[in-house]
Amino acid sequence: MPLKIIKKMIGSALDIAPSPEFAARLKRNKQYQKVFEAPSLLDGPEHVIIGGRQEGKTTLAVKWLMDCPEGVQRVLITLNNDMAKSIKQDLGLPVGDPRVISYKTLFNGKVLPGVEYGIDETVSILTKMLGLRELPRLVTVQHAEAWQGVGGSGV
Predict the structure, then answer these.
(1) What mean pLDDT value characterizes the chain?
(2) Terminal alpha carbon distance of the chain
(3) pLDDT of residue 42
(4) Can you tell me the distance from the alpha carbon of 148 to that of 155, in angstroms, rounded to the nearest whole number?
(5) Measuring CA to CA, which residue among 29, 27, 49, 47 is closest to residue 37?
(6) Radius of gyration of the chain (CA)
(7) What residue spans define the domains of the chain?
(8) Which residue in 15, 116, 123, 14 sits closest to 74, CA to CA?
(9) Terminus of the chain with fewer CB atoms < 10 Å: N or C?
(10) Which residues are within 8 A (CB) of 135 and not within 5 positions of it... i.e. 6 or more apart?
(11) C-alpha torsion sign, points 55, 6, 47, 125
């Protein structure tokens, strides 16, 4: 049976396209993960912030950056150095603060293990990185914990 694509697909796959077969397979898979996979290999939490222009997406990304738990290092990646500079200025951070950088700065530097990276303006960054002429329609597929979402199952 073909999947009917709804206008917006935001939520868990089971909420978007309910399937008893998939639900059963998912339950078996989660049991397998608990027994055989090392905790370090399990998917970690992710966040997707969506909305139109000037709806507070970057503000939430900055909140995520600054509300970092003790012992966790976070970096917010921006489209360009001007955006990084503006965010640092708004936060009262020094110009050289490594917590807010452009994606080009990240490419020219080194990615540090154990750091949580957040990306502001994901679609614009992908457009530049992939050399696209137009902004793509972003379909992102990733893991999310139940507490992070909305909808029937919490995702």
Answers:
(1) 79
(2) 24
(3) 47
(4) 6
(5) 29
(6) 18
(7) 57-130
(8) 116
(9) N
(10) 123, 124, 127
(11) negative
51: which 2 tokens?
Answer: 């909305």
Q: Distance (Å, rounded) from C-alpha 56 to C-alpha 51?
A: 8
Total-model pTM: 0.67
List, for residues 33-47, the tens digit of each pLDDT value.
666 655 554 455 566
Measuring CA to CA, which residue among 97, 113, 42, 104 is closest to residue 78? 104
In this prediction, the residues of the chain whose per-residue pLDDT falls under 70 are 1-14, 16, 33-47, 141-155
CA-nearest of 60, 85, 79 to 122 is: 79
